[in-house]
């Protein structure tokens, strides 16, 4: 059966002289891989639409046994020339794509993650985001996938957390507790600025993050606790210029 799907291309590679495999994020089905037979030479069926960072409308079908998917043809919907030619922007965007490629997506959240990645690429293309921009993206993906702590109230006593006092982020349980409720349990002590930042990322999107100006200490703390959180709950760590499942 042939279907039509809107996708963002994450990675491509050759497996024969003229044939390609294509890994992409589908708005309907999450991260998928399919084969484009003759893809490296067929301008009529795939003209300009099999490059990384491309947003494409593909016609897709399964082979007779259902063992793999085949790309029949594609239409380029959007490309990102600034991302392709500006090395800094290429690096920011590639970091986001590598995370999606490694993390995968649940079918239920694929549309939200697709829209999030589309908006992220649009922001990188048209502005000059901070070097920490991919961290905000990774955190938002985790939240969209259901790993979504409540940063606004203490999970112990239920009191609001937006005071100037540090709190404790229990990575394993995925909850935040105030210092009064912590009672020496394991967890990372984090500042109020970090908690406010993570709560704000939960409630906003990439177009808002461009204007975010954070003190160095808050940036580093966000990076530290969210990397631990994603390693524990999503099984992903950054290693040798890529993400690795643990």
TrEMBL record:
Involved in DNA repair and RecF pathway recombination. The keyword Thylakoid does not apply. Keywords: DNA damage, DNA recombination, DNA repair. InterPro entries: ARFGAP/RecO, DNA_rep/recomb_RecO_N, NA-bd_OB-fold, RecO, RecO_C. It comes from Desulfovibrio gilichinskyi. NCBIfam families: reco. One of its GO terms (cellular component) is bacterial nucleoid. This is DNA repair protein RecO. One of its GO terms (biological process) is DNA recombination. Residues 1-80 form the DNA replication/recombination mediator RecO N-terminal domain. The keyword Protease does not apply. Belongs to the RecO family.
